[in-house]
Structures are given as C-alpha cells and as structure tokens.
Amino acid sequence: MSTLTRWGRDLDPDAVLPEYPRPQLVRDSYLNLNGRWEYAITGDGEEPVTYDGPIVVPFSPESALSGVDRRLMPGQTLWYRRGLTLPDGFGTGGRVLLHFGAVDQTCRVLLNGVEAGRHTGGYLPFGFDVTDLLRDGENVLTVAVRDDTDTGQHARGKQKLERGGIWYTPQSGIWQTVWAERVPATHVERLTLTPHLDESCVEVTVHAAEGEADVEILAAGTVVARATVPAGRPVRVPIPDVRPWSPEDPFLYDVTVELGADRVRSYVGMRSYGVGTDADGVPRLLLNGRPYFHAGILDQGYWSDGMYTAPSDEAMIHDIATMKRLGFTMLRKHIKIEPLRWYHHCDRLGMIVWQDMVNAGGRYHPLVVTAPAVVPFHLPDRFFGRAHRERFLAELRETVEHLRNVVSIAVWVPFNEGWGQFDAARVAAEVARLDPTRTVDHASGWHDQGAGDLRSLHVYFRRFRVPRRRDRRVLVLSEYGGYGLRVDGHTFNDRNFGYRRYDTPDRLGAAFARLHAEQIVPAIPRGLSATVYTQLSDVEDELNGLLTYDREVLKLPEDLVRAVNLRLTLDRTR
Prior knowledge:
Structural class: alpha/beta
Shape: globular
Number of strands: 32
Oligomer: single chain
Largest sheet: 8 strands, parallel
C-alpha cells in the first residue's frame, strides 16, 4: 500500500525534478533526462525485443510514482530505454558527458547499442564521456540494472527482501537524476573547497587535466577575493572580514571558476568543526571553535510515494525547513546518501548533518545487531563478516570525496549498530585521515571500540543515564525516543512498530516532554553534547515519526517540540 504525498499528487511526469542536480559545480550546459522512459524486467541478461511499458525516471519501479509498482528480484535484469536528441542550443564541440545521480545496484549503460560503461554501487554518482557514441538526430539510450538487495554483500541500506519492522521494501534501478552536459575538452572536472576559518582563507583545488584557473569569491554579490590557481594544486585564498557559517547564520560565499573556455559556479561556507573542552573541562563538540550542542533528529529519507526519491525539490525543502522550525539544529542522515540538492538545502537553510555510511555485508546475526538493544555488550572484531570489506572501504572513500565540499556535514558515521561493522577503530582512523576537518562517530550504538571522537549510545528500552566511566571522547546520545502514534488515513499498512506506543497526541506529547525534562536536559551539564531523536517521519511499519509517512500530519504541537528543543543547549541561562 502506498500513500501519495501532496507533491506526488502534483507530479508532472514530463517535468520531474528539473532542478540542476549539482549545486556546487554548476554550468550553463544542462540537459535533464528525467521523465518518461520505457522499461522491461527479464530473467536473463538479454535485452528484450519488446518493453513492458512506461516508467517515470528517476523513481524506482517498486515505487508508486514510477507508474510501475513491480519488484526487481535477484537474478533478474531491469531494462530502461529512451530516445536522446541533443536540443538546439546545447552547443557544439568539446565533450558530452552523461551523468547518473545513483543507480541501485549494478548497471551497464549503452548508447546506440554500444556500451558506454559500467558501474557498481547503488548510492554514488557516476558518468561517462559519450561524445564518440553520439550520432546526428535521435540516439537510443539503454540501461541494464541488476540488484541482489540483501542476498549479496554490497551496500544496501535498510532494504530487505523480507521487509518488516526497521527493514523496508527494497527498491532498485535509477533513483536520482539522469542528465547530460557539454564541456570544453579541457574543463574543471571537480573542485575541492576547504574552509580554514582560523586562518580566514579557503583552500581551493581545481581538478583538471591542465591549465590555470581564475577564481573569484563573492559575498552577497561583491567580489572579496581573487586568485589564479594552477590545475591540481591547492591554493589558499584569503578572505577579509570572514562571516562564519552556523545554523543561526547560514551565510554562503559564492565562487566562480574560469578555466580556458570553461566557467563554473560554486559556493563555500566558512565554518570549522571539531572537539574540545568547555570551561569546566568537559569534552564537547565545537562549531567555529566554540562548544555547540547538536539537537538532532534521525532522518531516513524515505518517501511514501517515491521511496528513496523525493517527489520534488520542494518536498526535500519541506523536511529540512520543518525540522528547523521545530528547533532541531542537526539531521542524522541515516544509512543513505541523498542527492546533492538535499545537502545544498541544508547548507543554505542552516542545518548541521551527521552523515552515515551505507551499510554492507551479508545477512546480519541477531547476536550482533539486535541483542545489544536490550542487554548492552560489545563484540570483538572476529564476530563480524569479511567478504564485503574491500568494497565497503572503496565506497567509504568515494563517499567522503563526493560530499567533501558540503558545508553542513559535521560528523562521519562509518558504522551503525554493528550492521556490516568491522575494524571500526581502523576505519575511523582512515576516515580521519581522509578528512581531518570533521569528527568521526566510529560505531553508532553497539560494539564500541574506544575509537573516533564520540562515545555514541543508543537507548530505547531503558532509562538514559550518563555513564559513570569518564571518556576522553564526547558523549552523544545518537538514537533515543522512537515514541509511536498511529494516525489513521496516513499509514503504510495496519502494522504498528515503535519503541513505545501512544494512542492520543496528548499522551504522546506528555511522554515526549517528560522524557526530555527527566532524562535528557539534566544530562547536558554532565557531558551530554548531542542528541538524535527517532525520528523525522514514519517509515512503513514504523509509526514513530514526528511527521506521518506522507508528511501531512505533524503529530505534536510545534510549540511543544520547539520548547523542548530550546532547552537542548549548553547555554545554562535557558
């Protein structure tokens, strides 16, 4: 069963997610390829002679908004096909690049029957230079996809063939924007923009084959800094009178880069993340060099009609803006990598992000992933699987690089509750080496190996208490709450999963306020430095969201949630 959101009801299949998909590397050349394609599902790898019908890309075939509502099973192949004609005004010369935001899981891309490339990894973007495969007039673009869901070792998130409880209906295929651009032969391949707030400068690296780039940094439309940057070489560009980025003042500097005939636009926020101590010597998270409490909520990024894919840009904005209005300062993006536009909205609206890596590995043993929720204990590394490790590490490195420029990301979370966990201390050290500008929560929930920057606890079935044993790391309650309320007419099915259930909004509200007044707020002076309430919205069986799955009903009064969150601060005058 699926409930359409307001944005899903208004969806125009001929204008699906038309916004530019890469906000930190923008060119004028842009051809959106979302919309109506043909699809077929076959039991072998041979391209079908006839296709089964239309599909709306980039919604997976399992979703309502795709218009298909069919499940791809392990061993099957999902085929996509559409015509591709470069429009007048798209330009000539240079190279034509074809981009896919994300395709779950393994795919092969063909243009006019010739293979353009292959990719494995359901959560990361990829693209191919298709210049030499294009012909005048109409071309035929074909994509073949296979997805083993939880029967394989690859990254899968919370998808499960046998869905239920905290595991959700699997989705497959293209689930982020497909698009093309024309670039000069020598062009900006990517940018690295690293703010150094203490030194009032931005370190700019223009990744390109050759040449020098002219870089301008602008504040509210006025150029405040210029530099010439050789390709591939980091250059620090001083910025006068720096205006720091924060949730309270999410100021962004615009950046323009010219490399030969190529011109791109980007942006950067001047902020710093870290750990340190407050005036009493208590370990705390730091924002811009000062202790800052992260009042967060778990955000799984599932939609009742689009599954992994938000039905519109406005829908993504709605989630972020609503949580900010409720007084949250942080979203923990749970076991999913969003389209770059989602991070852009967090940057510009002022919402800190904790970014989970996507879990992988074979089937999880209940001793590893379930039992610690009731009786906390830690298992040594020999209890965890091994087959997926190299692939996980490769995708971890790709994830850090892909999201490196995101202003709002403060914390990397390699592992959650033992799902695919291995060598967590070593992996945390690798993440810190890859990106020393952010903090690391090496094992959110169970199986702490004493590594990373955070001592990260999940507490659902018992009272939260600050641990007696002091730790050099910052204490965070990275999941808690999960209080459920069913709102009839806005649910996925007739199941009711939640860590505690309530039958009226008043009772839920009283319990929510009592939980924070009795357990959370008193723990802050004793070292608690961040919280992640479960969760932003209902997801399938889970009815423990502040919003219903279709985002139509906020289950608690805004002023109640805002008043509770106002007390989640290091400011003792509140």
